[in-house]
Structure formats: C-alpha cells, structure tokens
Amino acid sequence: MVELSNSDNKDAEARPGVLNGYRVLDFGWVLAGALPGMVLADMGAEVIKVETRQRLDYMRLGRPIVGDQPDPEQNPMFHNVNRGKLSVTLNIAEPDAVELAKRLAARSDVVIENFSPGVMDRLGLGYEALRAIKPDIIMASISSTGQEGPLRDLRAYAPSIGSLSGLDSTMGYEGGGPLGLKHAFGDICGALHAVFAISSALFHRNRTGRGQYIDVSMLRATVATQGVGLMEQALTGRSLQPRGNYDPTMAPYGNYPCAGEDTWVSIAVKSEAEWRSLVLAMGSPAWADDQRFGSQYRRQRHRRELDALLSRWTALHEPDAITDLLQSHGVAAAPVLGAEERLFHPHFMARGLYSDTEHPALGAEPVFNLMWNLSKTPSNVRRHAPLLGEHNRDVLCGYLGLSEDELAELEERRVVY
Fold it and tell me: CB–CB of 278/271 below 8 Å?
C-alpha cells in the first residue's frame, strides 16, 4: 500500500480498519459514485480514485471558497466524500490509459463505477474484461435505473429518481401537487446499498474464492426505502399523497414557529397521556379544554385549529426552551436545526459527527464521520481528500513499476492527465 506521510494520520494508521489490506479501484464520481469508496476508505481499505482533467468530477467544480478563480481543489463537498482516497489521473479515452487501469484492476480487490450502462464495456473495462485478468475481482456498477430493463438508458439526475420512485409524489402540502424532495436521496440510497453489497461480496469471496458483479439501481434502492407507501397501496389500494405535516396517528404533529427569525420546533403527540403532558407544560390554557380537542380522533379532525392555537404559544418561546420544557414533561420535541447549528450541537460533538482535517487548499475543515461506531474495528478519516493526480507517481511508479521517464512521457501525451 502507498505509504502516507500525513502526520495527522498516525493515530488512524495505528488502528487499522476492518477492511485493512483490501484495495479498491474507484471510477466513481459525483455523489453516488464517490460515497461507496469513501465508506470503504474510512473502514480501512486503500481506495484509488481514478479521475481526469479531461472531464473533472462535477464535485471539483463550482464557486471557489478562496479567491474568484476556478479551483478544482476547493469544493468542500468533494473533500467530504473523497477523503481518505488516493488520486491518479488517467484519461481513459486513451487506449494506453485503459491499459494502465487494467493493470491497476489486476492488483485490486474491488472496482467501483457509476457511468451510464455500457460505458465501461465500450472502454474495455467492463466486468468480463476485468474478470479475464483477475478472476476473483468484485465489480460494482451504480446507475440510475440498473444495467438492464426498459429504462436502462434513461438520462436521469437526482430529481428523476425521486419522481420515478414515487417518493416525490408524497412530498408537498396537503391538497397540493408534489413538490419533491430537494435532496439527492436516491444517490445516497444507491451508494449505501452498494457498500452493503460490496461487503457481502467480499465475505463471499473470502469463503469461496469467487468474485462477482454487482448491479445497483438507485431507483430500486430508493423504492426499497418506502415500505409504508408500498404496503398502503397493496393493502388498501390507496396511494400516499402529499400531506404536509399531517400524520394519521398523531395530533398535534409538525413544525411550529418560535420566537426569533425563522426558528422552529418539532412537536409530535401520540397518546392521551402525552397530550395531557403537553397541556400541563403549556400551563393548561383554556382552549385546551375545548371539546374539539377532547380525544385523539377529535384532535385529528380539528388539527388545523389545534395547530393555529399551538403556534401562538410556541411563537412566544425559543426552540431550545420549548424543547427542554416539553421533554421534561415526556413530550417528543426537538429544535429544527440549521446546518451551522447542527455542526456545533453538543450532542453531535459528543458523538463525533465530524472530524477536523487539514486540507492543502483550504486548511482546517470539518468532514462528517461514518454513521456507525464499530467497537473493535473503528472507522477513521485517515487523510484529507486528494489533490487532483496527487498520487500519480506513488501509484503508477510504485505499483506498476513505471520509470520516471515513462511517467513523464505519458503525462506529455496526456495519457496520465
């Protein structure tokens, strides 16, 4: 494995992760393609990210943080989801670069890609081609709709997956049209399912000596998260519709305005005991004795009036104060946090939601840790996200045995580019 010189990685290097010793060749780009390699790197695998100046990863683009000139080293999202990786620049439109990629694949355990279906085959880097040079290789292809099927060649972005999966049809205000989820939920679903599949394939290979091909559909992964909606349709024939903050089993239920500009608190009440506790916490206002709110069924029927009255009370208080008060009475309540509030929240800080890294372009910056804690083989952010082509010499000369002159010649011809 490439010897890293980062002094801030000494603690992480001393505690190898559960995937220590495995090597991953990562052709993934943007969010769905980058996340699996990120997780595997944090779990100890050596991940070599293959990219090119010919067509930069979209996450290397965007407004610079420092200065006003485009800089592929300044995107914080790229830094988050590519930390711990090595970077080699191979222009795989060039046959000689494809041959270098094959030689790297022959020395790897896993290959990850998320190009459109058929691209890797046309480049000569498909599963059958790689299996011919490394029979036990594991290859994971992540695509919008899968490698086969009528929608195989669909051009799609994150909103397309939300739409096709039916998720967007449930997002919006009651009685209104679908607003959709303005978040790359499908990318994350597909990526995390890919991590599970890769780990399973490695386990299978360790038992049998056989690799395999993994076909991950972001669409299918997103559909799989919607069990409630699928069961509703199957059992009742009804499709879930946009319903805003309405919940069929809880009232009050939703986000309520608080004192201050654009501050909110989430409140959810399920049982009669919780309702009585909420009323007590509010100081037993007279309106709470109205017969319209005398049972869960009645509160559901008159939820709009209830929400309006409850909002008058919450608007007088800060979110944290309401949260503390209601929680002390056994009522589910929580402040609606913004991104900065989340970053510095005491609970998240105590749980290690973020790690601080030192990036050559931006200096100190936080990156989010993995969502699980393993007691025996903890994950670690082992180094900052790589600079573009930072490890060309380490990987191509160190692993493949290229001479300095050979590397310089390939760089001049923009094969290594």
Answer: no
- In this structure, how many other beta carbons lie within 10 angstroms of the beta carbon of residue 128? 9
Sheet arrangement for strand 253-257 = 253-257, 264-268, 332-335
List, for residues 259-303, the tens digit of each pLDDT value: 999 999 999 999 999 999 999 999 999 999 999 999 999 999 999
**Of 144, 180, 189, 142, nearest to 162 (Cα)?**
180
Helix (H) or strand (E) holding 309: helix 303-314
Average pLDDT for the chain: 93
Give the tokens for residue 313: 């009370």
Longest dimension (CA), the chain: 86
**How far, CA to CA in Å, does 16 sit from each of 23, 42, 122, 355, 382?**
14, 10, 37, 17, 10
Contact assessment for residue 24 and residue 47, using Cβ atoms and an 8 Å cutoff: yes
Beta-strand pair 138-143/213-217: parallel
**Is the pTM of the predicted complex or chain greater than 0.85?**
yes
254-269 pLDDT, tens digit per residue, is 999 999 999 999 999 9
Q: Which CATH number fits domain 253-343: 3.20.70.20, 3.30.1540.10, 3.40.190.10, 3.40.50.620?
A: 3.30.1540.10
Give the integer Cα–Cα distance in Å for 159 and 376.
Answer: 39
The CATH H-level superfamily of 12-226+352-412 is: Crotonobetainyl-coa:carnitine coa-transferase; domain 1 (3.40.50.10540)
Q: Is 187 annotated in the active site?
A: yes
pLDDT at 76: 94
Q: Which residue has the higher pLDDT, 266 or 174?
A: 266
Of 121, 136, 187, 324, the active-site residue reads 187
Residue whose C-alpha is closest to residue 226's, from 177, 255, 176, 186: 186
Report, as an integer, the average pLDDT of 340-347. Answer: 89
Whether omega for the bond prior to residue 72 falls within 30 degrees of 0, making it cis, is: no
